[in-house]
Specification:
This is Divalent cation transporter. By secondary structure, the chain is an alpha+beta fold. The chain has 3 helices and 4 strands; from the N terminus they run E-H-E-E-H-E-H. The protein has a single domain, classed as 2-Layer Sandwich (Alpha-Beta Plaits). Strand 2 and strand 3 form a beta hairpin. The longest helix has 14 residues.
Length: 101
Amino acid sequence: MPTVYVTAPLEAADEIAEALVAERLAACVNRLESTSTYRWKGTVHRDEEVVLLAKTTDDAYDALVDRVLELHPYDVPCIERFDEGDVLESFATWRADSVEQ
């Protein structure tokens, strides 16, 4: 089951996280403040962002990505999927029960 890594600007992070959980596309979303340095259109930028770690299921992954794309203000949002190795069985069960399938 995947964890989805998304970066978002401060003003959009709460809306994205809350929509994913409310719509049962993620069991939970962790928010971590971050400073990102990146190149965009030939210029180096430095911005305060939020890293969102969304815990979801294989079945809900595509819908989660589609919803992030709908809500995200960036032209090219960072959306990366990390597939887990070992995970506590009780957590995996809770996550599956929390995400609508």
